[in-house]
């Protein structure tokens, strides 16, 4: 089927490394070439399954991918501190392969750590005027179109 082949060309497998609440994209050596027939929903991870927090992050990453279009890829996912002790929040950087390379920041919310479904709680386009400011307590703020959002990762290591 031609539409299935086209969708396969738009999607590519992305590999992630999990480090204390962050999922980091590991680029292929031939970043320009797309893998044939692979799907961004078939994410592979160097993390061993069945290791508690890592398995939870793996499930969360798959749930976040399910919210995206086929031409979108997650470039970075960072777990954020949440006011609610049960809610789990991530900030993800998403890029698209549509007509031109565009990026957006999405806030993804899980009702609990064992949840397999998430909702999009924040949509923040990355415009040419977007600025990022680091604050002294490990958090950062993003200002775009005169709108400022503050974020705080679960640990300093997740930012680096």
Description:
This is Slingshot N-terminal domain-containing protein. Pfam families: PH_SSH1-like_1st (PF23040). InterPro entries: Phosphatase_SSH-like, SSH-N. The protein has two helices and nine strands; from the N terminus they run H-E-E-H-E-E-E-E-E-E-E. The strands form two sheets. Strands 1-2-3-4-5-6 form a six-stranded antiparallel β-sheet, with helices on one face. With about 160 residues, it is mostly beta strands. The protein is globular and about 40 Å long. Strand 1 (about 15-20) and strand 2 (about 20-25) form a beta hairpin. The protein has helices at about 1-10, 55-65; strands spanning about 15-20, 20-25, 70-80, 90-95, 100-110, 120-125, 130-135, 140-145, 145-150.
Tally the helices: what do you get?
Answer: 2
Secondary-structure element string = HEEHEEEEEEE
Overall mean pLDDT stands at 75
Number of strands: 9
Amino-to-carboxy terminus distance: 43 Å
Could you give the order of strands across the largest sheet?
A: 1-2-3-4-5-6
Protein name: Slingshot N-terminal domain-containing protein
Organism: Characodon lateralis
């Amino acid at each position: 089927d031609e539409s299935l082949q086209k969708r396969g060309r738009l999607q590519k497998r992305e590999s992630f490394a999990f480090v204390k609440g962050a999922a980091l994209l590991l680029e292929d050596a031939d970043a320009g070439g797309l893998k044939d027939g692979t799907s961004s929903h078939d994410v592979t991870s160097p993390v061993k399954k069945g290791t508690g927090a890592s398995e939870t992050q793996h499930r969360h990453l798959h749930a976040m991918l399910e919210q995206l279009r086929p031409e979108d890829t997650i470039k970075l996912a960072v777990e954020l501190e949440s006011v609610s002790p049960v809610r789990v929040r991530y900030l993800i950087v998403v890029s698209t392969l549509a007509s031109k390379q565009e990026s957006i920041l999405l806030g993804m919310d899980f009702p609990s750590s064992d949840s397999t479904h998430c909702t999009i709680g924040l949509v923040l386009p990355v415009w040419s005027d977007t600025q990022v400011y680091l604050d002294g307590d490990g958090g950062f703020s993003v200002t775009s179109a005169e709108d400022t959002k503050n974020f705080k990762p679960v640990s300093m290591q997740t930012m680096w």
